[in-house]
Amino acid sequence: MQSRELAGRRILVVEDDPIIALDLKKILEEAGAIVFGPASTLDKALRLAEDLHFDAAVLDVRLERGDTLPLALRLEGRRVPFLFQTSDPGIVAGLFPGVPVLRKPFPREQLVAQLAGLLA
User: Fold this and answer.
1) What is the number of structural domains in the chain?
2) Domain of residue 46, residue span
3) Which residues touch 46 (CB under 8 Å, ≥6 apart)?
4) Euclidean distance between CA atoms 114 and 46, whole angstroms
5) What predicted TM-score, i.e. pTM, was given to this entire model?
6) Do the strands 10-14 and 34-39 form a parallel or antiparallel pair, or are they unpaired?
7) In this structure, what CATH number is given to the domain that contains residue 75?
8) Of 25, 7, 5, whose CA–CA distance to 15 is shortest?
9) Residue 71, in any domain of the structure
């Protein structure tokens, strides 16, 4: 059964692992979201952030090259809610107080609930 907690919400996904990216996209679409991306590089993510209007973002912290911290700073400045998903939560500990950090792997319900909470 599909949940609809994110119905119509536009979510930017930044994830460089293609399997995880497709899984995130599927989870969010099943919850009713419109997914932008997934972007696999910081450059692509920054372009999408400039060109598109979205309600929230899901950011993998570490990418194949670099990280998403510059994008997180930009989103924070624009007051766009976001969360991090990472296998190493310590790398963002204390950098963005109040921003949820999901430790990979995590249950799909946790992702949807965290995003719904950010958008409430």
Assistant:
1) 1
2) 10-119
3) 70, 71, 74
4) 23
5) 0.94
6) parallel
7) 3.40.50.2300
8) 25
9) yes
